[in-house]
Structure formats: C-alpha cells, structure tokens
C-alpha cells in the first residue's frame, strides 16, 4: 500500500501558489573555527543525518487523475548536492547583504519533482563567518515522523561524530497503474474522499483551506475569537512574488528585566515590544490610530496532548500546535498598558489549553525551535482570507551554544511564510542570551521592513524605561 500524504499535508500542496510558496526557512550564522568549516563538511554532516529523516529523500508523487492524494516515494535520482548548495557574498559580506540574498532564495518555490527542501551554505560573511539558509515545505515536517533538518544537524557540543556508512537504497516508485488501483481501492472503502480529491483537482481552494483548518484543530478556537474581520490596513494586501527580509538580535536579559519589573512573561514582553513597533510603523505610514485601534496577530501556540505527562518530551514535538488570534492594542500610547493588554489576552489562551511552557519546550532534543516554527507555519497555513493581519511565531531555544559539526552557531533568524493576503510574518526565537527576530515581508508592501526592525529596538528601549 502506498504511503499517502495526509489530508493536512496534501492541503499545503493544493493551496500553494507561485507568489505564496508554502515553505518555512531559517538563517543560521556560524563562527568559522580555526580548523575551518567548509561546504564539504556540511555536506557530510547532512548526508549522515538524513538517515534519521527518511522523508527528506522522498518526493510527493501525484496520482493520475487526482483520484487520491499524492504519495511519498523514494527519489531514485536523489542528489544531495542539488539540495545542499553553495553560494557566497561579495565584499564586504555584511548582514544586510545576507538578508537580501535570503529574501531572493526564500521567494522561490521548491521543485515539486524533488524532495521538498533545500539548504544553502553561504560564504563570504564578514568576521570569518558562514551562514546556512534552509527551506522546508510545510507538507514535510509533521513533528512526529519528521522534524526539521535544523533540529538534527545541530548538537550541544562540537565533538566530531562517526559519519558511519550510508546504506540507503531507494525503493522503486509504484507504477501509474498501481497508483490508480490503490486509489480505487481506497475510494471503495471511503467514497467521500473521491469527492474531496476531485475538488482539489479543480482547485477549490476555499474547500481545501477549510478542510485544513479542521485538520489542525484550530477552527473552533478561531471562530470564537473572530467577532469581526481583521482591521483593514497596509498589512493586508495582494502578495507579490518578491520578498524582503530583515533580522534583528536583542538581549534576552532585557526581556527578563521587563518580566521581573512588570510581573509578566518573556513572551508577553516580546509581543508588547512588537505591538509598539507596529504602532510606530503604522504611524510612519500615516495610518489613523485612535485609542481602540488594533492589529490582529495569528499566534500559533504549542499544546500538550490531553493524555501527555506534564512536560513530557514525547508530548511536545507533535502536531498539537494550535493557532490563536490576539488583537494587539496598537492604538494604546502607553507601553505599560499595552503590556497589560497583551498579558491578559495571552493568559486567556494559556488557561484554555494545556499550553506548553517555555521551560518544557527546552527539554526537546536538538534545536527544537526549527521544528516548532515549521509546525507553527502549518497551523497558520490553514487560514485563508483576511482573518488576521500578521503572523507572529515565538519559540524559545537553548541558552547554551549549539554546533553544526565543529562550527558554533552565533545567531539564528526564523523565516516564516506569507499567506495570500498577509504582507508580513514574524518569527522569534531565543538562543544563547539573545532574542532573534526574523521579519519576512512582501517586497512591494513592506519595502521598509528594515524600518520595522529598527522600531522593534526602539519599542524595547521604551518598555525598558517604564515603571508601573
């Protein structure tokens, strides 16, 4: 029997359009050790770890006539050098040049004829650094059978590992006749699926998106939160095929001081700072901001399975990431009142589910934020239309250094995908004393994305200087 894509996995293929590729990315920057860290070393590391990720050597094979969802098959022509590519920046090799390259790389859809992931080894960065840019399709990472590649290639130490012997041998894909026979057999058992697959073939995107929302489990929660359409503004527009990207590092200690001073969580402080930045950015665009003005954020949160033990690793990395809608009070001029509003809204969602605390998420092996951001994108990708204004996904990371081979990771910036009507997506993660923001924007609507990054710094300084 064929290894068929789940309804949720397939939905991300069905709704993908050239201007809105459905992949998640990350930008990891490494300090090059004295012994060097070259493309060949990364290639060997990835090749070794692929044994733990069989899906990364498989592609999605469509069924003739769209009689059933696609199936996963081994890529008999798998070429690691195609998926792990090499590039370089011209002098001076600044972060801004890197982010410009990231925007171009992440704007391009993945090749459907190959396994749905790519990685780029970027050389030429100033201060003897290299970068690893990854792209992984949302249909690939489910958090159960498959985690993000970034979680497996990063280790707590720089000790060299025995690469071992790669014994992988691809299996022959099923013939067209076998694909049809399997589809017909399943249709006999579940005739309703034949209608759903026909809808997908006809590109009934509304039906597909609705089905995906139900599969994630966030539909009921979302409908309870939505009492009106998301506020209109420049964050909602028809997304073009171009992208802009900006990354920003802030100090985790600053957010911890805000937590101690105001009795909130670090997550509350992060969202309050983003609210202040969005308020300033909207003001720079001349947008009217009365006291009641809000920006609706789609916020994916990890939750424990109902029968999972408290803080159990097995209950954390799974598909229990649910999307919630939070109205950010951008009309409020007082940063402390903004923080209070955010803390109250977040507490309501945290009380409604067995939501995962930051300390529990840090128990997940490897660099878990890579997988958690992929799961967050899956949850967000289930929504279509103008239900929200901006996607914000925050996942805590380890506070000890992690390594790819012998190279220490110095910085990490998440790259969250854009939906059809959303011009900005923000990924956040903490790592080794820093809080890293990755801002992915539409090239036309968010041409000033670097201004938003600057305003995050200003909003943080504003909140740090306040008292109750």
Automatic annotation (TrEMBL):
Residues 319-464 form the O-acyltransferase WSD1 C-terminal domain. One of its GO terms (molecular function) is diacylglycerol O-acyltransferase activity. Pathway: Glycerolipid metabolism; triacylglycerol biosynthesis; Lipid metabolism. Pfam families: WS_DGAT_C, WS_DGAT_cat. It comes from the Bacteria. It catalyses: an acyl-CoA + a 1,2-diacyl-sn-glycerol = a triacyl-sn-glycerol + CoA. Residues 5-270 form the O-acyltransferase WSD1-like N-terminal domain. GO terms for biological process: biological process involved in interaction with host; glycerol metabolic process; response to hypoxia; response to nitric oxide; triglyceride biosynthetic process. One of its GO terms (cellular component) is plasma membrane. It is an enzyme of class 2 (transferase). InterPro entries: Acyl_transf_WS/DGAT, O-acyltransferase_WSD1-like, O-acyltransferase_WSD1_C, O-acyltransferase_WSD1_N. Its EC number is 2.3.1.20. This is Diacylglycerol O-acyltransferase. It comes from Prauserella flavalba. The lineage of its organism: Bacteria, Bacillati, Actinomycetota, Actinomycetes, Pseudonocardiales.
């Amino acid at each position: 029997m064929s290894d068929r894509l789940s309804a949720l996995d397939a939905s991300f293929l069905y709704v993908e359009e050239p201007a809105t590729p459905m992949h998640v990315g990350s930008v990891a920057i490494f300090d090059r050790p004295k012994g060097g860290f070259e493309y060949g070393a990364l290639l060997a590391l990835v090749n070794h770890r692929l044994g733990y990720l069989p899906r990364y050597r498989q592609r999605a094979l469509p069924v003739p006539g769209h009689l059933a969802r696609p199936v996963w098959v081994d890529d008999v022509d798998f070429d690691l050098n195609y998926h792990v590519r090499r590039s370089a920046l011209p002098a001076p090799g600044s972060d801004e040049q890197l982010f410009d390259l990231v925007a171009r790389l992440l704007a391009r859809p993945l090749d459907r004829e190959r396994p749905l992931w790519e990685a780029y080894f970027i050389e030429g960065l100033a201060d003897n650094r290299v970068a690893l840019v990854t792209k992984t399709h949302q249909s690939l990472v489910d958090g159960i059978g498959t985690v993000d590649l970034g979680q497996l290639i990063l280790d707590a130490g720089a000790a060299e590992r025995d690469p071992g012997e790669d014994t992988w041998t691809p299996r022959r894909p099923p013939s067209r006749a076998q694909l049809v026979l399997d589809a017909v057999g399943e249709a006999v058992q579940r005739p309703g699926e034949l209608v759903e697959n026909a809808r997908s073939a006809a590109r009934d995107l509304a039906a597909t998106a609705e089905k995906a929302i139900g599969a994630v489990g966030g539909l009921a929660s979302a409908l309870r939160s939505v009492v009106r359409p998301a506020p209109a503004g420049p964050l909602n527009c028809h997304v073009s095929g171009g992208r802009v990207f900006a990354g920003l590092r802030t100090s985790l200690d600053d957010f911890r001081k805000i937590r101690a001073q105001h009795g909130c969580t670090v997550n509350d402080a992060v969202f309050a700072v983003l609210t202040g930045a969005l308020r300033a950015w909207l003001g720079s665009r001349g947008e009217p901001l009365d006291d009641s003005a809000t920006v609706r954020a789609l916020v994916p949160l990890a939750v424990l399975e109902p029968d999972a033990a408290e803080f159990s690793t097995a209950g954390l990395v799974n598909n229990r990431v649910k999307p919630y809608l939070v109205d950010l009070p951008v009309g409020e001029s007082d940063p402390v009142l903004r923080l209070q509003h955010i803390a109250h809204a977040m507490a309501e969602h945290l009380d409604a589910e067995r939501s995962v605390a930051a300390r529990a998420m840090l128990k997940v092996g490897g660099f878990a934020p890579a997988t958690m951001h992929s799961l967050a994108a899956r949850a967000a990708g289930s929504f279509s239309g103008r239900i929200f204004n901006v996607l914000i996904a925050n996942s805590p990371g380890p506070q000890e250094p992690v390594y790819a081979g012998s190279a220490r990771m110095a910085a990490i910036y998440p790259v969250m995908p854009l939906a059809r009507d959303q011009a900005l997506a923000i990924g956040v993660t903490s790592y080794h004393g820093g809080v890293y923001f990755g801002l992915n924007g539409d090239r036309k609507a968010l041409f000033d994305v670097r201004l938003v990054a600057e305003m995050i710094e200003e909003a943080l300084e504003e909140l740090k200087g306040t008292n109750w």
